[in-house]
Design goal:
Blueprint: H1 5-14, E1 24-27, H2 47-50, E2 61-65, E3 78-80, E4 90-95, E5 120-122, E6 130-134, E7 139-149, E8 151-156, E9 164-173, E10 187-192, E11 198-200, E12 203-207, E13 210-215, E14 220-222, E15 225-228, E16 242-247, E17 252-254, E18 257-260, H3 264-268, E19 277-282, E20 289-291, E21 294-296, E22 300-305, E23 313-315, E24 318-320, E25 325-330, E26 342-349, E27 369-377, E28 380-383
Parallel strand pairs: 1-2, 2-4, 3-6, 4-7, 5-7, 6-8, 7-9, 8-10, 9-11, 9-12, 10-13, 11-14, 12-15, 13-16, 14-17, 15-18, 16-19, 17-20, 18-21, 19-22, 20-23, 21-24, 22-25, 23-26, 24-26, 26-27
Antiparallel strand pairs: 27-28
């Protein structure tokens, strides 16, 4: 059968991905939002403008330049309304000198943020504001620094899915203090009713409620570090409450690290209300996996809480700490507790810590499936 030439032409055109027509846009601190944004010589001024520009389409990339000096920072609340499609995300990518370069993110705890290394967003009020608000599907965000907001990155809604959040450094989020010892304020990355997202190679420091909070399914968190090092001795506030908390199904946490770093006074004084829960699940969380993760100096290094949490697995994880529970299973509601938790090769170590506290570790409730729990203490090795 012979097809007319117009039909053949349309077929050939359909073979080309829309990414073949993708456009690169540019943002810099010396730019102007009246520019066309399509070259290094005519960049836009703000990511706030670029993230909602009608010019940005699936497959496009917006490159955001680091500051020329450490005083050149970005501000504002960025709302990403320009999304992509499967195979053609919209990408917002920070860079140092040349678009596409790989900024050095060898960040260590207490390092100063450097606006010349990666684009730095400074909110100026850690008790208010969201730095990055994702309100579109298939959005990729990578290579940014964020500080002094209430929330660094958030998404809220089932229509906002398949986000990729990579190489984000988020520091000093949420107020510290408040009545009763702490104010539940501040989140690093919070994705609610959102699924199929990927969080990778991020660092979150002093998010004074939750480091990463996911409410959704089929998400992946990997190679991400979360620290808390603040303490308000006048109120007893000690910062991050949940380092990674997931409420959903079929999520994976892999190769992540959670650590509390606070003065010895916190460990020795029972008046301090909370020293943090590490990596785990709450509410109706089912069929989730945590593997190859580390938790240090937390009241519950790994945890499962509330009725409805079942069939979750912890595999090849390590918990370091003095007197705190390395794996915590609790029931906060009547009518039954967590069920069908599998623990595979969890190692608890406290011999490396030099703290004047009793050496204790225990389960609140023994899970149904325990495989090779190893406790390592001075002169004592026990395999359960």
């Amino acid at each position: 059968m012979k097809y007319p030439k117009p039909v053949i032409l349309l077929f050939l055109l359909s073979l080309f991905s829309s990414s073949a027509c993708a456009t690169d846009y540019f943002v810099a601190t010396d730019g102007n939002n009246n520019n066309d944004g399509t070259s290094l010589n005519s960049p836009w001024r703000t990511l706030v403008y670029a993230a909602s520009s009608q010019l940005v389409n699936p497959g496009d990339t917006v490159y955001v330049k680091a500051g020329m000096t450490d005083d050149e920072v970005y501000t504002g609340n960025v709302i990403f309304t320009r999304g992509g499609t499967s195979g053609n995300p919209v990408t917002f990518e920070g860079y140092t000198n040349t678009p596409g370069d790989a900024p050095d993110i060898n960040y260590q705890l207490n390092d100063a943020l450097q606006a010349q290394m990666m684009p730095l967003f400074r909110g100026g009020n850690r008790a208010a504001g969201v730095a990055f608000d994702i309100q579109a599907p298939y959005v990729t965000i990578r290579n940014f620094q964020i500080t002094e907001y209430s929330v660094a990155v958030q998404s809220w809604g089932v229509d906002y899915h398949h986000a990729a959040i990579e190489n984000i450094i988020a520091v000093s989020l949420g107020a510290l203090g408040g009545a009763g010892g702490y104010e539940y304020s501040g989140k690093g990355i919070s994705l609610t009713h959102s699924s199929n997202n990927h969080i990778k190679n991020c660092i979150i420091v002093n998010a004074n409620a939750e480091g990463i909070s996911l409410v959704g399914n089929e998400n992946l968190i990997e190679n991400t570090r979360i620290y808390s090092s603040e303490v308000d001795e006048s109120t007893g506030a000690v910062g991050t409450v949940y380092y990674i908390v997931i409420k959903g199904n079929n999520n994976i946490v892999r190769g992540c690290y959670a650590e509390r770093i606070v003065p010895d006074v916190v460990y020795n004084d029972p008046g301090y209300p909370h020293v943090g829960a590490g990596i785990g699940f709450k509410e109706s969380a089912e069929n989730n996996l945590v593997e190859d993760c580390v938790a240090k100096n937390l009241s519950a290094g790994f945890y499962v809480r509330w009725v409805g949490a079942r069939n979750n697995i912890f595999r090849r994880c390590r918990a370091y700490g003095p007197e705190f529970k390395y794996v915590n299973y609790t029931n906060n509601s009547s009518g039954g507790g967590v069920s069908a938790v599998t623990v595979q090769r969890i190692i608890y170590l406290n011999h490396a810590l030099q703290r004047a506290v009793p050496l204790q570790c225990h389960f609140i409730e023994v899970p149904q499936k325990v495989q090779r729990i190893i406790l390592i203490m001075p002169r004592l090795i026990t395999v359960l």
